[in-house]
Structure formats: structure tokens, C-alpha cells
Design a protein that fits this description.
By secondary structure, this protein is of the alpha/beta class. The chain is built from eight helices and six strands, in the order αβαβαβαβαααββα. The strands form two sheets. It has a four-stranded parallel beta sheet with strand order 1-2-3-4, covered by helices on one side. A two-stranded antiparallel sheet has the order 5-6. Strand 1, helix 2 and strand 2 form a beta-alpha-beta unit.
Length: about 180
């Protein structure tokens, strides 16, 4: 909690602070930490325990005052649907590569709309920004600039919002010289 309090003190109350334990806690530890994080104003608690222990995730989600976020490890749309049916989370954050690409994302967004569960993205912001724009329950875009070094035009962020390019498809144009320069043989 001291680390969270230090971050909160530094950034203030106007900044959303999310907590991700990356599946490192026991169920008992997560049940202890969740209410404390809620009382400190954490925006969400992400994967405090194993992502596939849906019953325990449901216990944590029901017992805590903080929204439980899981999803980056969903292996396909059915895994997400099972988590939603089991009330194992109040927020989802599927990974584009693991959920089934664009087709899987579109199927997943239908589930989140039916359950009225906010849906964020996990990585791949250049494509995820487009998909979130077509997601009725869109929440947060997880933004990292890892592709900036190898694309001709990086994803633009204006006033803290992603602005997807207006080009067909994903809008990605690779910088062939940069790709060659960073290529590993």
C-alpha cells in the first residue's frame, strides 16, 4: 500500500491509477488488498490471481469495492465469455493476439455489450484504437509506443486521446528501412 500511496501523492486525485499484480497474489492476499486499494481510490485491480481461476476471481470481484480487471490472458472468445458468465470480473482487457485477432475482438465486444462490461485493450494500440472505436463499451486504450520506431506514421495522441489514422485497414504503413535496420537474423 505504501507504493500506491506514494504514486497517488505524486500524481494527485485527478489521475487514474490502476494496479496490476500480474497474477502474483494468493486469493487470501488479494481479498485483503482489494478493499485497501479501493479505499485509496485505485481505478481497478488487474489480475491479482491466476486469470483462469474464475471462481476465486468472482469471489474477489464480489467482495471488493474495486473493479476487477482480467482478460489479457483470455485464450479466445469463449474464455472471456466464461469469465463474464461467472462474474469473475467487472472489466475486461483482451489482448488482440490472444482473443482471436480482429474477428475475435468483434465477437468479444458483442459479449461485453450484452453484459454491459467495459472493455479496454491490451497492447497493439495502433490496431486496438480502431477496434475500441467500434466497441460499444470501450473503456481504456493501453498505449505503448513500441511500434513508433518501425512505422512511417506513429499513432497520434492528442489531448490524451488516440487519433487513429484515416487510411484503410489498420492504417499501419511500415518503415521498410527501419524494419530492416532492427531486423534480427
Amino acid at each position: 500500500m505504501s507504493a500506491f500511496k506514494a504514486v497517488r501523492k505524486r500524481v494527485g486525485l485527478a489521475v487514474a491509477v490502476m494496479v496490476d499484480y500480474n497474477q502474483a497474489l494468493s486469493v487470501e492476499n488479494a481479498l485483503l488488498r482489494a478493499p485497501a486499494l479501493a479505499s485509496e481510490g485505485a481505478t481497478w485491480l488487474e489480475e491479482p490471481i491466476r486469470h483462469d481461476d474464475l471462481e476465486s476471481n468472482a469471489r474477489i470481484a464480489a467482495a471488493s469495492g474495486i473493479p476487477l480487471q482480467i482478460g489479457e490472458n483470455f485464450n479466445g472468445v469463449e474464455a472471456m465469455a466464461a469469465a463474464l458468465r461467472g462474474q469473475a470480473c467487472r472489466l475486461v482487457m483482451p489482448d488482440l493476439a490472444r482473443i482471436g485477432g480482429v474477428t475475435g475482438w468483434m465477437q468479444a465486444r458483442a459479449s461485453t455489450a450484452a453484459y454491459r462490461v467495459p472493455m479496454s485493450s491490451h497492447l497493439f494500440p495502433e490496431v486496438s484504437a480502431h477496434l475500441l472505436a467500434a466497441t460499444p463499451t470501450a473503456d481504456w486504450l493501453e498505449y505503448v509506443d513500441w511500434a513508433d520506431a518501425i512505422v512511417q506514421e506513429p499513432l497520434k495522441i492528442v489531448d490524451d486521446m488516440a487519433v487513429p489514422p484515416d487510411r484503410p485497414g489498420s492504417g499501419l504503413d511500415w518503415d521498410v528501412r527501419a524494419v530492416e535496420r532492427y531486423r534480427m537474423s
